[in-house]
Model the fold of this input.
Amino acid sequence: MFGLPKFGDGIGLHRIERFLQAHRIDRAALARRSIAVTGTNGKGSTARFTTSAIEAAGMRVGCFTSPHLFDVRERFMIGDDMIPRADFDRHTETVLAFNRLLPEGDRLGAFEFLFLLAILWFQQEKPDAIVWEAGIGGRYDPVRSVCASVSALTSIELEHTELLGATEELIAYDKSDVVAPGGCVILSPSISERLAVRIAAYAHLSGKATLRAIVSRRVGPVVNTPKGARFTYGFTAAPAAADQPVRLRLAGQHQVDNAVTALRTAEAWLGLKPEDNAERHIAMLTALGRTRWPGRLEKVAMAPDLWIDVGHTPNALEAVTRTFLDFSPREKTLVVFGVSASKEVAGIARIVAGRFDHFILTRAYKSGADVALFAETFRRQSQDVTIAADTSEAARIAKERAQLEGMNVLALGGLFLSAEVQQAWNGGDPKALEFF
Done:
């Protein structure tokens, strides 16, 4: 399985269709159950929040997300349960057998493989609802084939421009095509009004509707703490005194935007008007507060404290670093930083270098960029820059210094860096981690 390339042999919707037909997937039932989530940042958090909100309505909900931190089975959930190993192995063999029958030059990639595995497991388990996180874009993404009637669009940033288009508008149009004709796209509060107008026009022409997550909603000021974000939520037609306090386990304005988007997405899929059902509305808000999502500004060790975040775009790092400084003093924060070579190295490094004072720069074993590409950016901003050869050395140095100086450690730069630092911090071998 781990020998598959990340991407298949070109756009592969025809491969997905062939598989669904060959394995007699109940397409109508799949479409009824499905909600799609796409966007540049925030897809996984929004998917998990949406899952929680629908579960609060008494339903059994499946969730397919990416990437994973330590176990590939993290991507396949029903409620709080990962796919059992026996089911994972059995469905793996089925998908790989299908792939072996495909002609050379038209084979599956890793994401397609995982998506089809999820299809088989959810077909077997028949949850009441399934929340699907798209991989890249929407128009050519395997998740489009579930024909979801509702989708969430979490954010737009320039990414994968060779496939999705060179402007934010083109990328937004691509992502909005993940939902089936006749469906509805829920737009996050993070989507600008300028872009929302353009998405709405495109959606109308392609037989879809759009709905702003904050229409008729009132979201109070966000307070960030080490335990998560606090805010109030209510309806503009009701007095402000009736607004409900909400506590999330995830911190940041960006996570509040994700939670609000997820709530509106769940309401749209359930066909609810929560202002007419206060009890259910409160239950869904409470469920958002129970939602966990590993790797999103998460404290993973204590005494000394280690925090990780898997954000890997400039906008993601902007949001995460700003949030962290709301509750952790800059002078008491030691940042372990590294970034994948395929990401926007200069832009990400510039943001992190300008936010903190104490740094350990390193290179993840998996796809890490050479430290020389960004070291000077940090040296221009700080006199406290240490270079570590790899994530094992970085974790050791960070732990020793944090214990000695009473500092918090924050690992930033993406999934590979954060997961490897956490693994090494806990005495494991970061080289043993298996990623796609």
User: Anything to note?
Assistant: DSSP finds 15 helices and 18 strands in the chain. The CA atoms of residues 361 and 387 lie 5 Å apart.
